[in-house]
Design brief:
Strand content: 5-15%
Helix content: 25-40%
Strand order of the largest sheet: 1-2
Low-confidence stretches: 134-149
Distance between the termini: 65 Å
Shape: globular
Number of strands: 6
Length: 160
């Protein structure tokens, strides 16, 4: 990419945002709503500041200071990227992609979603469900929810 007459290297998601929207303002980054740094899905990309991006990461419980907590890929972002690149070197193979993603994945719901191959919808749903802020969203739609049983008069609920 050329900026002020100088060549510079940028990541694909930033290049894509600048291609579509023109040069980004100074100190603006391209953020991923899906938390997948390799994602180039336009619906998942937005412009943000680094501060906003770090606040989102902290709000989602994905970091404490500079260290990622629990759900980071065990191979690191470079190891994950290399595994995905190797899996797709000979073309799109969703089973190979799922295996490459699954190998370093620590989130149980995401591991379960990838266990039977790659399905983008199931994968993104599992990523969203693994987000600690999703605890604020009901697990079941209102029409499928049943009324909670009434508590007995003594106020004690039976476990059986």
């Amino acid at each position: 990419m050329t900026e002020a007459g100088r060549e510079r290297t940028v990541r694909v998601h930033r290049w894509l945002m600048e291609l579509l929207h023109g040069p980004l303002p100074p100190r603006t980054i391209t953020a991923h709503s899906c938390n997948e740094s390799l994602c180039v899905e336009l619906d998942h990309l937005s412009n943000a500041t680094q501060r906003t991006n770090m606040r989102q990461m902290a709000d989602q419980g994905r970091a404490a200071g500079r260290a990622h907590l629990g759900y980071a890929d065990t191979r690191g972002s470079l190891g994950r990227a290399q595994a995905i690149q190797a899996a797709l070197r000979d073309g799109l193979d969703l089973d190979a992609l799922a295996a490459a993603m699954l190998a370093g994945e620590a989130r149980p719901l995401v591991r379960q979603a990838l266990a039977n191959g790659y399905d983008a919808e199931a994968y993104l749903a599992a990523v969203r469900a693994s987000d600690p802020s999703s605890a604020l969203v009901p697990l079941f739609p209102a029409e499928a929810a049943e009324e909670a049983p009434a508590a007995p008069e003594d106020g004690q609920m039976s476990l059986f």
